[in-house]
Amino acid sequence: MDERWTLKKGATALVTGGTKGIGRAIVEELAKFGAYVYTCSRNQAELAECLKQWEGKNFKVTGSVCDVCSRTEREKLMENVSAVFEGKLDIFINNVGGGVRKPTMEYTAEDYSLTMTTNFESALHLSQLAHPLLKASKSGSVVFISSTSTLHVYVKSALYTASKGALNQLAKHLACEWSKDNIRVNVVGPSVVKTPLIESLVS
Questions:
Q1: pLDDT value at residue 148
Q2: Annotation says 154 is catalytic
Q3: Which of 15, 32, 99, 171 is the most buried if burial means most Cβ atoms within 10 Å?
């Protein structure tokens, strides 16, 4: 396993939406490599169960409840992360995402607001909040979880795809702006993965 890649000793990481799907896989991958991981979920019971399981595997994972659609809760999340990691953060994985599967003509103002807040606004704000912590680590890394839907046409996914496209463009700008602070910014665009999100979108 160590031959694939490594992390610096004592690396710290924040993974949003880390209790299921891709987010959970990322939390466990980082923890296996010795990282101290902080994660969040909207569901208290789900978070508690995951933390219990991770403790049983001797993973160094902690977390708190947070709805990333709430600006106040995003600010509280980063305050918690700063306190736990003493003002420094090595890795920020912006994983939270969601979408409504509809023909374009059926999207409502509420659909737009929810999708853009979940997939784009939260990513921008959390990145702004994380910047001082990433800069303090002197080797920060941001990874946005996007989608291959930004390169292809997936039926009934126009709004979701547009929000992820905006995320891709944000990443490009941050990569240029924050390089002077020794912060790398990258995007990972998975294809269709069997997760609860995908199951809800195709149902």
A1: 84
A2: no
A3: 15
